[in-house]
Structure formats: C-alpha cells, structure tokens
Amino acid sequence: MQLDLGWTYIAGVDPLALFKAHPGRFELWHVKDVFGLKTVSPSLGPNARVSSMALVPLGTGHIDFNPVFVEASLAGLKHFVIEQDNAAAWGDSLAAARVSYHNLAGMLT
What we know:
By secondary structure, the chain is an alpha/beta fold.
C-alpha cells in the first residue's frame, strides 16, 4: 500500500499506529510536511482541517519524521518520495524540493 504521510497526519491518523496494526503493508510513502498540525482542533471536520493547514517543504512544518523513519522496517518501506502538492505556490518548486531534500538528509543521518 502507498501511504501519504502528510495527508495521514492531516486526517488525524497516527501512521505509527497503522504500521503496528498492519506490519509490512506500507511499502511506498509520500513524505510531505504540514504546517498547522500543532494548532488544529481535533474536533474539526475534514474540510476545516485542510483549510487550517499548509503543505510546506519538508522540515519546515510540524511533522516529526524521525519516529516514522525509525519504524520503516515495521511498515515494510521499500521506496519513498518527497512530495509537496503545492510546491509552485510556495514560490519556486525546485527551491522547495532542495529545502526538503536537505532537511530530510539531515534527519536521516
């Protein structure tokens, strides 16, 4: 199964709980970061949750990816991609990709 980590968090779902409930099922990940997770009310519906957050370059949002990558084996991870749905809206999609790459490389070392 392919799991989009950013949208998983936006939906209020804990990916670590998914990995534990379904080990080995999440071979592909879309790794994206979200700003606004720390302040969103859990009682909001899906549309309100989405509009209260912003997709941002990896490492500039509120997702802590370290515990997620620690559980990569449990998840069954084989491949992942860094993704930002609205990278062009951020100003420069290549600059956003560069920021995401450097931040993730720093997290994984």
